[in-house]
Design goal:
This protein is elongated. The two termini are about 45 Å apart. It is built from 13 helices and 15 strands. A six-stranded mixed sheet has the order 7-8-9-3-10-11. The protein has a five-stranded antiparallel sheet with strand order 2-1-4-5-6. By secondary structure, it is α/β, with parallel strands linked by helices. The relative contact order is 0.11. The chain folds into two domains: about 180 residues, Rossmann fold (3-Layer(aba) Sandwich), CATH 3.40.50.300; about 100 residues, 2-Layer Sandwich (Alpha-Beta Plaits). Helix 4 crosses helix 5, helix 5 packs parallel to helix 6 and helix 12 runs antiparallel to helix 13. About 35% of the residues lie in helices and about 30% in strands. Bound molecules: adenosine-5'-triphosphate and magnesium ion. The site of magnesium ion has 3 residues, from helix 1.
């Protein structure tokens, strides 16, 4: 594996307002590969913003190291020995890391065009060249027709697209998106996420996607870290985290992103399941990849005489892989059911028995 574009090692950030100690980030290590969309998810106060602000040293870690593209931006051990980039060098490096935020942070008294141009104020190119660059960027975010308008004349989604154009003005390799879709409706959120994905695909832009919505992670992230109380509870590929979540908090986030819990609840409360006859089993079958439901259900009957009545089915595609979930009522002789469950396990289907045999 190539060296990560972002490597955060053993990051601690401690604040001491009025002598009180707040461990905003504790012992966090994250490696982000070039071209990744890396999600960082957690509730308010988890430490997400503080952590990502260490990437461009808007926040200095209390200890730990920040390495970008193999270059040490910051390193400080617990005994205090430190190295860090600063001054002009830091400013230049920062320009290669774009940022977008929940509240867009546009200059209201400047036009769309001027907002983007502002990001190029340190650029020594001629004005004409810079204006061409701005026009290109506005084209990229599909706002060419709004160049002369002011932020107040734009929708939230359009404002965020101006912010994205501005963040890309200095050709960054990394874009940090800190709750960039939190103030937007679901449809606009999707448009912004799709735009980030497009930039990632077309330009290999590495994206750090900070969010409290697992839905956003599910939509575009390759990897995800789940944060709580300043710590990373778990991290991994989006597919692994969604299909095999370990931490309770992760399960909670996933449930809200998939509405799965609501479906299970509604069906569990239904008359069919409430009045489940003896000998029948209400279960959730989960699978990843090629084991599609139909052959599976057919095999259950043909090989084991187990009839599966499907009450609910959901298939999602995560990172190009199918993730399926079925709520079924299984009816059979008890012995056959055990064999059938063993068969399902051998096919990498996870079975959760919700009611009935062995529940
Ligand atoms: N400059 C600061 N001084 C003191 N405490 C701070 C400072 N910045 C952040 N904190 C505290 O650090 C903790 C983590 O805050 P942070 O803003 O990183 O969380 P977050 O996950 O980004 O939350 P949100 O989802 O609300 O943006 C919080 O308890 C916060 O109050
Ligand atoms: Mg935050």
């Amino acid at each position: 594996m190539t060296a990560p574009i972002i490597s955060l090692k053993d990051i601690d950030v401690t604040f001491t307002p009025k002598g009180k100690t707040i461990h905003a980030v504790q012992d966090v290590s994250i490696d982000v590969q070039k071209g990744d969309i890396y999600g960082i998810v957690g509730y308010s106060g988890a430490g997400k913003s503080t952590l990502v602000r260490t990437v461009n040293l808007l926040q200095e870690p209390t200890s730990g190291s920040v390495t970008i593209n193999g270059e040490t931006f910051f390193s400080k051990t617990n005994d205090g020995a430190a190295t860090k980039i600063k001054g002009k060098e830091l400013k230049e490096k920062r320009r290669k890391i774009g940022m977008i935020f929940q509240h867009f942070n546009l200059l209201n008294e400047r036009t769309v065009e001027e907002n983007v141009l502002f990001a190029l104020e340190n650029n020594k190119e001629k004005e004409k060249i810079k204006k061409e660059k701005v026009a290109e960027l506005l084209e990229l975010v599909d706002l060419s027709d709004r160049a002369k308008q002011y932020p107040s004349q734009l929708s939230g989604g359009q404002k965020q697209r101006v912010a994205i154009a501005r963040a890309l003005a200095n050709d960054p390799e990394i874009l940090i998106s800190d709750e960039a879709t939190s103030a937007l409706d679901p449809k606009t959120t999707r448009q912004i996420l799709d735009l980030l994905k497009k930039l990632n695909k077309q330009y290999g832009l590495t994206v750090l996607l900070i969010t409290h919505e697992m839905e956003a992670v599910k939509a575009i992230a390759d990897k995800v870290a789940v944060m709580q109380n300043g710590r990373v509870l778990e991290k991994g590929s989006t597919l692994d985290i969604f299909t095999k979540p370990q931490a309770e908090l992760t399960k909670e986030f996933i449930a809200t992103a998939t509405n799965q819990d609501q479906a299970i609840q509604a069906i569990t409360d239904s008359e069919t399941v409430k009045n489940l006859p003896a000998g029948q089993t209400f279960a959730e079958l989960k699978y990843t990849g090629n084991s599609t439901n139909e052959p599976l259900i057919t095999s259950l009957y043909e090989q084991f005489g187990v009839v599966a009545n499907i009450l609910y089915g959901n298939i999602e595609v995560l990172q190009g892989t199918e993730v399926g979930s079925l709520l079924v009522i299984l009816s059979s002789e008890k012995d056959n059911l055990d064999d059938a469950l063993a068969f399902l396990a051998s096919q990498n289907v996870t079975v959760n028995i919700l009611k009935g045999a062995q529940a």
